[in-house]
Structure prediction request, 473 residues.
Amino acid sequence: MLEGRALFVTHVATIFGQRLAVALGELGADVATTAHAFTDRAAADAAFTATPRIDAVVHVCVDDAGLVPQPLVDVTADAWDARAEALLRDMLFTFQAAHARFIATGRGRIVLVAPTSGFTGAGGFVPASTAVEGVRAMGKSAARQWGAQGITVNAVLVPPALVAPELVAATTFEAPPAVGRHPDVRDDVAATVAHFAGATGSGITGATVIVDGGSVMAP
Amino acid sequence: MTVTLDGRCVIVTGAGDGVGRGVALACAEAGAQVIVATRNDNGGAVVGEIDARGGRAAWARCDVTDEATVVAAVDLALERAGALHAIVHNATSNRSSEPHRLEDVDVALWDEHAAVSLRGAYHCARAGFAALRASQGTLILMTSPAGIEGTVGLPLYGTVKGALRGFTKSLAREWAPYGMQVNIVSPLALSPAMTRAIEQDPGVGERLARRVPMGRVGDPEHDVGPAVAYLASADAHYVTGQTLAVDGGHFMNF
Prediction:
């Protein structure tokens, strides 16, 4: 599905990010990666510049260190920053570095991948949910600003079970997947990412697709 | 049944002007004791307006980016009213209506938005938790269509407003076992910045009104304020985690 496409996958230090990067490779993509969040614009630019070709950026919007259940009243200022705002700054730097690359060729794809727990809410995960929904919102505005420049931005939401066991315990209110199983990382999640990151699909932007076997269904 | 806030105390951040001022006036009108929390001196004028109408209000100089001043506003509420029933976190950055391109913005502008909207929400939740738990009270945040459907002009504003919906839903689940509520309002009302824009170019107002099924942009006090007063009232005790659009039907995509 992704033969001949060069993808840049972020946050592969996370368990889910690593699995997704491998799965995208199995679908034929040439995959470059970065392990951790960018702490400034220069770091993002350096990582992108070091990658000869990028057709699409697949941004995994989680950080394992941020997925620690804790009541918000007990979250310290530093933990708030690390679990919420640092991920949003990382997102901004990633978007800016991606735009700088894509503007040269007049085309590019950004695909955000995040757990559904931001969309549904998850007690004990207020900072991470703030980050995930902020990322999705930034994606929609980027889609509106950059659409005419040939850049699309879409989001794929995946079940908490693929991202962190702690998130599963906080989302027990969710219905079981209608198809009777969690989505497969390669055949369901990566394949959906591939549609947004591949050669077709340039007319879809600002969309959110939930790939979770029919557990959460958008209103 | 008419919404009443008799015997209730409500803190409104960013209440010196615009939507926040309208919410403060409406809550006072409904009977609440209002803590007008503002960083600037304009909070005193709003307290004066409420006093002149026979309502009860006090001004707390409060910068939501500084947790200690939010704690002080909560303390003032408890000192004056003996209890706190609602915090309305309405404040946004002074630069929130400054148009920008996402590829051009520097991290300083991001931090302005994040500090007031996101860190401010975190500070309100932390500072208010004990008092709101005691009253089975409510935290009300403010979002925007920009945060829900994206915006071509204000992407960082849209980002923090969208982020607050994630904050709201997760905190609503976290606080529900205590009988506390967390909701978020998406208003469409004439802000001072919008009023200035319309004065400069009446076409702006006409274009805005055309996008609103009810044919006009709302008034902070009379259109948005009463909906917020309802959420701050005891009548809304079974409503939580919701995004309430108070926008004349502008946004219907839930």
About this structure: Strands of chain A lie at 6-9, 30-33, 56-60, 108-115, 151-158, 208-210. DSSP finds eight helices and six strands in chain A.
